[in-house]
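How it folds:
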Amino acid sequence: MSAWKALSGELDPDVRTFVERLRLVIDRSGLGVVAVVERTGHDRADWDAFLHARRPVPRSAVVALSDITGADLGPLTAAWEHADRAWKRLLRERAVAVAGPTPDPGPPPGPARDGVRDGRRDPEGVPDPRPGPQDAPPADRTLRIRKVVPPAPAHGPTMAPAPDPAPAADPAPAPAPDPGPAPDPAPGSVPRKPRRATPLLYAAGIAGAALVVTAAVLLADLGGPGGSAAPTAAPTPSATTVAPEPAPSLPDGVRCTGADCGGQDPERMGCGGPLATTVASTRIGPAFVEVRYSGVCAAAWARITGAAAGDEVSVQHGTAVQVANVPEGGDTDAYTAMIPVASGAAARACAMLAGGEDGCTGE
């Protein structure tokens, strides 16, 4: 019996139960940790972390330990699922603790009242002179501005003001400069006659504004201030107007590919038959074990033939594992569900016979 280091008293009960079950399986097998490391394909540092509850255990390590020790995979898998959920819950809690709560930005600043703004009184009780939303002039004030006409002189005959050529509320796009109001005549002097050229000045201003607008349009057509006067070539159609190429369709009868095939039956999904090939195989006692791979479905599965009731076959890739058992009733073969893989060489098929014999492809 190995002398295991005591587990921390702060462990989750599910994690503690699972790690103690792993230790018990190794003790009963008589292999020791070194033999487990050599036969499961995981490093010594990994198994030290697994058996001392410092790191979550991948499902592939559980399946491999069951294969080399002959332990029942069902109870091991059930305990692993409870421990895995506990580990994920602990990792989420640690992430929240590191991020910390979001700081409260506090109430928004309010308007100043009686010289007080945001809880502080300005010197001498004077409100903050900085403009705020409450100090903005109403939107319609600018519509009330009108041109101020100078009053008639106090002496001499009354002179009518010059007519306003256009409403102030609707100015021209680029009005000519305002010559300004005429100076008041000196007392006792003869008033001047109204300037008859004022409408001509406004007409000239409007014509100038039209010339400016026309020049701007021409510059825009020529590509800006440095543009050439040569005729503009027809614009190249935008790439966004080109319809995207449709995704390649699957062959008739194929219903999944890649990640969509994970956990699916290869025959029902149309991945078997002529679309599948055997990429690895081995013989374990009277049984023949294969890794079947479909390039169209980008998935692999394991198949066992010549087996007996109770024999187990599995396919593995990383932490992805699918297991199947040969049923009662005279059938001598079985196959697992699929796991998504980029190539068939990445997957491994294993079998554990009811008589105690076991093995995997690639050994």
